[in-house]
Structure formats: structure tokens, C-alpha cells
Amino acid sequence: MFYEKFDKKLHEIVQEKGHSRIIKRLKEALPDDNSVWIMYSSENSDPYFGKFITKKTTAPAVSLVSKETIALLVHGLDADNIKNFGNSTIIYNKSSEISTEIKTFLRHLGFPSNIYLNYSDVMDTATDVLGHGTYQFLYNLIKEFYEKNGKNVYFHSADFIICTLMDKKSEEDIKYMKLSANRGLQIIEDVFKEIKPGVTEKEIFNIFHEKFNKKPDYFKSYGIVKEEFAWDKAGCPIVLVGSNLAKGGHSLPSERTLNPGDTIYFDFGVKLCLDDGRKYSSDLQRMGYVLKDGETHAPDNVQRVFDTLVEAISLGIENCNPQKRGYEIDSIVRNYIINKGYPNYNHSTGHPVGEMAHSPGTSIAPESSKRSHLFLQENGVYTIEPRIQMENGGSIEEMVVVGKSGGQTLCKQQKSLYLI
Fold first, then answer.
1. Of 66, 200, 47, whose CA–CA distance to 129 is shortest?
2. CA 330 from chain center: how many Å?
3. Residue 269 in contact with residue 282, Cβ under 8 Å?
4. d(CA 116, CA 125)
5. I need a labelling partner for 367 at 20 to 30 A (CA). Which of 217, 346, 348, 391 fits?
6. What CA–CA distance (Å, rounded) separates 312 from 400?
């Protein structure tokens, strides 16, 4: 099994070097020396401030990230909680002083002309976290300060900075994401082995939850302290059978019975929570077929659906490199399905996976999506999940890590139908 080959000391190494690694990544994410990324957090309002800077502030706090240094402006009420930040920590005690300290530090940095803030100009709700009022406060404060000093300033969305940090995975991250993918796949395969004709979608859903509740012994060895469903447990997994394959991919399980001659697919993932606070999600889909009496394999029409999905996904995987934008991968996969004579599907071909099953970053979607114009990140993990959306159709989803010359799946790619 995959987990038997896993490096059991991995999470200990990450815990020891985690802070310095994050600081290094933050500085590398800035585009140039004339840029500063400003995050504003009050009552933990900014998840990226909490992830990369600190979760130990309640009063308004501001971080200023440049290639030179990282400053943290924190209220005196929270000062005792910030002891090991390791960079410039500036304490203020009145609400007006935070404005003064922001200006003082920007002067110290030499009035960098490019200011990056946590709003989205590609309509990504996961990165559009600043809020209009806070944006106006920072914009007016900095613009007036620069104009008073005869300096030019340009404001930019921090979309690509956040996407770089969240999309791009370290070697340790990839190993844990493989663990999450293989855990999810093992549950899927166990369910396929157990189900029989006559069960309903809801009953299959309940079998998944029974399997999920039985935790493997190896979790403790890898610092896994908790396992959650990768998305809301009321809809995880998605189970669709036969005629229901024509429905949307987010449909809840029904009383539809699994019968001979039906195709079936599961959409399932888990989230592994580590003792050092990191989380890794998986998101997989697998397709099967229920044999009729006398059948030893799927009929030609079902096999053709399955083969088309596998071939489309394989083409997508081959092309997953950092020179490709999201819409280019979507076009390759989607057009292959359509050119085989099947209907277009009503969703994106893929999305980033990380802490969440749907993480911030490049969307593998049609060109009309702004997020699809972002490039794939090397060592980023994305799904490829085309669908043949028709009665007794099918859907498969693979998790793919991007490499310089193409992608690789995080767990065994489905190349044959599960036969029931």
C-alpha cells in the first residue's frame, strides 16, 4: 500500500523548519523589489494573514511583505501573543497610530510603487477577502501619503501572489496530498467491492460514511490528528446512478436503485488534518458498471463512454505544464469529448486542490472564466474531471501534479471500469 512507503519523519521535519520556510516563500512570491503586499486583519478577517503571518491577533493588525523584510503592525492588546514572529514587529496602541506606522514603514521601504492588496480582479471569492471599506481606507491612506511626498503608487490585486502560495506545493505537501488521495481512493474501492444491485444511492452514501468512520492505524504515525470530509458531509460523496448521470454533478443522493445495465459514479474526498495545523484534501471521481445476466464486460456503448473519458483525461495530464493557462487545458479535454460526439458538460474541467477540495488558484475552465487565464503552477495540484452528461453516461476525476514536461496523477489513474 502507498502509506507503507511513506516517510514517517516527514511531518517532524516540516514542524521544525515550517516558520522559516513560510517566510522564504512569502518573499519569493513578490514580483520585484519595488512591490509590497499588504494584508489587513481584524478579528481574523483575512485567512491568508492567519495562515502566513499569525492567527494570534484580535485587534486590527497589518502585515507588509517585501523582498527585503516582513513587518507586522500589532496592537498592544495582542503584543504578548506575538513573541516569535522573527521579523519587524511594531506595536501601536491607538487606532490612529496604525495609519502612522503603515506610512512610516512604507517610507522605510523607499516608497515601493506597487501595492498588492487582498481583493480579486478575476472574481475569485476565495481571494476577494479585504472588503470594500477596508480597501478604501488603505487606498486613500497610501495614495494621499504618496502624493504628499511626490511619489507614484499603483494598486494591484494580490490574486496571483495568493495563487502562487496556495497552488504551488512543496515536496512535503505533495507527499501528504498523495496520502490524502490514496486514502480517498481506498474508501471508493472498498465501496465498489461491497455494493450490489438493488441498493439505492442513499444506501451507498451511507456505506461511504461507515467506511470513512473506520480510521486506519497509520494516521497517528504521520501526525494526522483528524480526518474530515473534503466538503460538506451532507453531500460527500456524490453518488449518481444510471438515468441520474444526466443531472448536475452536485446532486444529492436519491432513492434511485442501482440496477443491472446501469453506470454509476462516485465523487468523494477526504481532508487530513495534521498535528502542526496543516490540512490536505483530496477530490476523486470513479466510474463503474453493473453487469447484466450473462455479461462479463460492459457493452460497447458504455465502454466507449469510459474510454473517451480516460483518453480525454490522459491528454489533459500530458499537457499540464507551467507554460499552459487553465483555459488551454480545458479546451484540450472538453473538445476531445465533444469531437467524439458527446454533449458538452456544464462545469469547469478542473480546479486547484490543497487545503480545500476547491482551493484558490487557476481554474481549468473555458476562456470566458477570468481565473482560467492564470497559468498552471509548477508543483500545483489540479483536478481533471470531464463528464459525459447523459443518461447512463459517466464521469472520472483525477488529481494531477504539474511538472515541467507534463503532469502526474497523485494516485492510480482509473484505466478500467469497476464492474459490479
1. 47
2. 17
3. yes
4. 17
5. 391
6. 14
pLDDT attached to residue 19 = 54
Q: Is the peptide bond before 352 cis (omega within 30 degrees of 0)?
A: no
* Sign of the C-alpha dihedral computed for residues 211, 356, 275 and 379 taken in this order: positive
- Percent of the chain beyond pLDDT 90? 75
Give one DSSP letter per residue of 241-280, joined into a string: EGGGGGS-TTPPP-SPBP-TT-EEEEEE-EEEEETTS-EE
- Side chain identity at 120, as an amino acid letter? S
Rounded to an integer, what distance in angstroms lies between the CA atom of residue 249 and that of residue 394? 10
Instruction: Estimate to the nearest angstrom the gap between the alpha carbon of 329 and the chain centroid.
Output: 17
Higher pLDDT, 94 or 366: 366
The grid cell for 132 is 470594500
Q: Calculate ∠ Cα 130-134-140, nearest 5°.
A: 125
Residue 228, C-beta contacts closer than 8 angstroms, at least 6 positions apart: 270, 271, 273
- Cell 478579528 belongs to residue: 43
Spatial distance between the Cα atoms of 49 and 320, rounded to a whole number of angstroms: 30
Whole-model pTM: value is: 0.87
Decide if 233 contacts 245 (C-beta within 8 A). Answer: no
Q: How far is CA 82 from its chain centroid?
A: 29
CA–CA separation, 182 and 410 (whole Å): 8
> What CA–CA distance (Å, rounded) separates 204 from 189?
12
Q: Which residue in 74, 71, 84, 66 sits closest to 27, CA to CA?
A: 66
- How far, CA to CA in Å, does 91 sit from each of 105, 134, 141, 277, 390? 13, 20, 19, 27, 61
| Burial (CB count <10 Å: 0-12, 13-18, 19+), residue 151 | middle
- What is the Cα–Cα distance from 354 to 342, expressed in whole angstroms? 31
pLDDT score, position 14? 39
Residue 248 sits at φ, ψ, to 5 deg, of -65, 155
* Residue 403: all three cell numbers together: 511538472
C-alpha cell recorded at residue 378: 509548477
